[in-house]
Amino acid sequence: MNKVNSLTASTVPFIDLFWNQCEATPHRIAVVQEDCSWTYQDLLSQSCKIAQSLLRDGVEQGDRVGICLDRSPIAIASMLGIHLAGAAFVPLDPEYPTERLRYMLEDAEIRTLIGHAKYQPLFDAGSCDDQSVHPSAGLNWIEASDLLAIQPSPADLDRNNFPAFCGEQLAYVMYTSGSTGNPKGVLINHAALTTYCRADLDVYRLRADDRTLQFSTLTFDIAIEEIFPPLLCGSCVVVRPLERADSVNELSHLIDTHQITAVHLATAYWHQWVDLMKATDSRIPSSLRLMVVTGEKVSVDHYRRWQTICDHNVLWCNAYGPTEAT
Q1: Which of 71, 76, 138, 230 could staple 235 via S-S, CB 3.0–4.6 A?
Q2: Burial bucket for residue 238 (CB in 10 Å: 0-12, 13-18, 19+)
Q3: pLDDT at position 134, please?
Q4: 250 closest CA partner among 230, 280, 223
Q5: Which one-letter DSSP state was computed for residue 205?
Q6: Full-model pTM
Q7: All domains of the chain, ordered by start, with CATH?
Q8: Which is higher by pLDDT, 75 or 156?
Q9: What is the C-alpha separation between 223 and 264, in angstroms, rounded?
Q10: β-strands 112-115, 170-175 pairing
């Protein structure tokens, strides 16, 4: 692709490129988690149902919609559905203190939230003396399991029935951890997301036969890298099971069991994994072809250890700051 065409393509909102991919490969597997397997057509249909539900509930173009969800296919469909509705998604970590979550609701001006029922008490305004000023007051809670029960209509699968928007519009807000003071939201627009995904496809040489492990929590920016670029090349996102595997080396077990080809890990976790493999005299799983270690600089000693336990060619990358880079 020449530079002019590449620049033009990078301004197309991600959701339109995803829609095109679904039309090109409707029967390829897009998302897998344990016994759940969705094709690209399934994922598009579910995303459209969510978008229509949001639009019926009054979500408008440019609104911010919160998601408080575990790693799951419905979480991925919710992100895409929010985009189809013309809104931006804001991941909310259920492990955060309640006051921090309430701050984020107010700061991001979230009035609609998609979540799992077990997390709804975190956003309950009942404990506030003056509910009229509580950020949870008037919050439209959408139960994720209810979205799965909605039956799509033919109109749900027509792109013309959803808002059109430009690359400058907001795609998502990613909050920092807030370890020192309140967390700060980083605003990412659609053009930035598309450009980032295309760079990922190029640098990491993503392929249609890849199987990328969705390992991170949704509030960590690695999750964006695990989910969005693979969906632009017709490959499969394998969502980490919620229950831990009964294995000494859980990550290697996941990679072997699901024939994972691409893994993105925070640096500290990667260091631990390398140490565990060395301690148990294990080898790098043979299916792995892409290893991205992200977040901070890696230990040179750990990289040298990695080289001693890897018997095949692996594209190994150390990456920093996908949120900042966009």
Answers
A1: 230
A2: buried
A3: 46
A4: 280
A5: T
A6: 0.90
A7: 3-243 (3.40.50.12780)
A8: 75
A9: 9
A10: unpaired
